[in-house]
């Protein structure tokens, strides 16, 4: 008996993924190797609104130069948080990327709290010994599911993730052109290799801060093994700033309300003026400045600290646990290096 056409397609796609046959196009790989990352080092800040214009939350992206294990890289920190139908939800992405957007390490965190029931997803990926090692922890209520998988970097050429996608589209918009056959590989919810494609939407008039501006559109389509593809439409201003982001079919959209130049004017530096009698405390001030310089230098070398603490505090204030120390221990436990049971001093003392 002949199998239905839809089942055959699904089985074929599954077999291709299991056999690591899905690949990024040569055009996509060539595009990633030709980018100029210094052009995309700036921040975006949008609001999340409903179809009726109700403010539901915020979405922000920060990009800066950083270092990971003494290797220069791009550090991206993206965060969205808010409430839909009075249910708190949010997503945080921290990614370390090379100059051609190859992922060195990325941490993804998503949470939703509905009617007393919580959903929490964490996915951490890191390059190690020629492999991309991926650990995922999903918590639904009290039930915890853990998944781990690794893929050779040789089959992940042209990989795009939540973090690198944001920069990839920003760079396409700056060029005002999406080349043909932009087919990359990515990972689905079950950590299987799938395709993600990008195409050009053309120009569109958008209203930002009371002005009508021309924006360049990029469509991202995430393909799936079992389900229908998911499409995102993003529009960017001439300078690369994100102006609009929406998942096709969703009643929720992200929009830029004020032009970036106007927002930046609200954060002018205030000059520091020392009083004349401060000379009496020169020894104290010298030591204070020495400590400040040391702390600032360390924070510049490790910008991930700000992203990590911001995510932790947001989650802490959302949950409001009675035992803060136990909550902190459970929160940071996934970041601890793996150790065999015999290395645990508590286990040795039992």
TrEMBL record:
Organism of this sequence: Amphiprion ocellaris (Clown anemonefish)
Encoding gene (name): CATIP
Entry's Gene Ontology cellular component terms: cytoskeleton; nucleus; plasma membrane
InterPro entries recorded: CATIP_N, DD_CATIP
Protein keywords: Cell membrane, Cilium biogenesis/degradation, Cytoplasm, Cytoskeleton, Membrane, Nucleus
Compartments, as annotated in UniProt: Cell membrane; Cytoplasm, Cytoskeleton; Nucleus
CDD domains: DD_CATIP
Main location: membrane
Residues in Ciliogenesis-associated TTC17-interacting protein N-terminal domain copies: 27-251
Pfam family name, one: CATIP_N
BP-aspect Gene Ontology terms: actin filament polymerization; cilium organization
Similarity-based family: Belongs to the CATIP family.
Function: Plays a role in primary ciliogenesis by modulating actin polymerization.
Protein name listed in UniProt: Ciliogenesis-associated TTC17-interacting protein
Residue ranges of coiled coil: none
């Amino acid at each position: 008996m002949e199998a239905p056409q839809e089942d055959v397609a699904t089985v074929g796609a599954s077999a291709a993924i299991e056999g690591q046959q899905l690949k990024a196009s040569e055009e996509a790989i060539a595009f990633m190797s030709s980018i100029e990352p210094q052009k995309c080092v700036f921040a975006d800040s949008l609001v999340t609104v409903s179809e009726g214009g109700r403010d539901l939350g915020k979405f922000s992206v920060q990009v800066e130069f950083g270092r990971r294990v003494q290797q220069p890289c791009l550090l991206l920190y993206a965060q969205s948080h808010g409430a839909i139908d009075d249910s708190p939800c949010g997503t945080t992405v921290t990614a370390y990327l090379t100059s051609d957007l190859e992922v060195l390490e990325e941490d993804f965190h998503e949470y939703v709290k509905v009617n007393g029931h919580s959903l929490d997803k964490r996915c951490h990926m890191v390059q190690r010994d020629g492999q991309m090692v991926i650990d995922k922890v999903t918590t639904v209520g009290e039930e915890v599911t853990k998944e781990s998988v690794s893929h050779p970097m040789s089959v992940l050429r042209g990989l795009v993730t939540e973090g690198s996608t944001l920069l990839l589209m920003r760079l396409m918009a700056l060029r005002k052109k999406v080349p043909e056959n932009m087919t990359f590989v990515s990972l689905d919810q079950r950590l299987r290799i799938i395709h993600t494609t990008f195409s050009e939407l053309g120009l569109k008039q958008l209203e930002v801060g009371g002005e009508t501006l021309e924006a360049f559109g990029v469509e991202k389509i995430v393909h799936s093994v079992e389900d229908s593809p998911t499409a995102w439409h993003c529009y960017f201003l001439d300078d690369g700033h994100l102006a609009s982001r929406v998942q096709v079919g969703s009643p929720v959209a992200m929009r830029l309300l004020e032009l970036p130049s106007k927002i930046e004017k609200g954060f002018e530096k205030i000059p520091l003026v020392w009083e004349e009698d401060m000379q009496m405390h020169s020894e104290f001030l010298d030591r204070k400045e020495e400590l400040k310089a040391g702390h600032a230098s360390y924070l510049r070398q490790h910008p991930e600290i700000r992203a990590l603490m911001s995510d932790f505090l947001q989650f802490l204030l959302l949950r409001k646990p009675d035992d803060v120390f136990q909550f902190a221990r459970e929160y940071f436990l996934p970041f601890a290096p793996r150790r065999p049971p015999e290395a645990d001093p508590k286990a040795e003392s039992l």
